[in-house]
Amino acid sequence: MSLISNLGFLYKDLGDSQKAISSFKEAIRIKPDYDKARWNLGMVYIEVGNIENALKEYEVLRKSNKTYAAELYSAINAKKA
User: Fold this and answer.
1) CB of 9 within 8 A of CB of 25?
2) What pLDDT shows up at residue 1?
3) Model-level pTM?
4) Do 46 and 79 touch, CB atoms closer than 8 A?
5) Burial label, 50 (beta-carbon count in 10 A; 0-12, 13-18, 19+)
6) According to the model, what pLDDT value does residue 58 have?
7) What is the dihedral sign for C-alpha 27, 28, 32, 34?
8) Positive or negative, the Cα torsion across 40, 44, 47, 50?
9) Within 10 Å of residue 77's Cβ, how many Cβ atoms?
10) Is residue 17 exposed (0-12), middle (13-18) or buried (19+ Cβ within 10 Å)?
11) How many structural domains does the chain have?
12) What is the CATH number of the domain that holds 33?
């Protein structure tokens, strides 16, 4: 799953947000508690302006990883401003 998540990073760096999203979602499907992939998915959602889905990832992270949740929430608020 970390290989799939790394693929998501690569797609993100190449500017292919949709493939990055797909890769991070697949990593999460395989390991639902993979918080780093969930955080990265939320960050890509923010980049493409999908705040609604970023907030969904935040809600999951809020229960499992408060640090990632706080960082994602800050990024969401910065995008809204």
Assistant:
1) no
2) 61
3) 0.94
4) yes
5) middle
6) 98
7) positive
8) negative
9) 10
10) middle
11) 1
12) 1.25.40.10
Domain that holds residue 57: 2-80
User: What is the block-wise mean pLDDT of the chain (81 residues), using blocks of 10 residues?
Assistant: 87 96 96 96 97 98 98 94 74
Closest CA to 44 of 15, 3, 78: 15
Tokens of 24: 């991070």
**H helix runs in the chain, sequence order:** 2-13, 17-30, 35-47, 51-64, 66-80
Residues 24, 40 contacting (CB under 8 angstroms) = yes
pLDDT of residue 80: 80
Q: In angstroms, rounded to a whole number, what is the distance separating the alpha carbons of residues 38 and 26?
A: 10
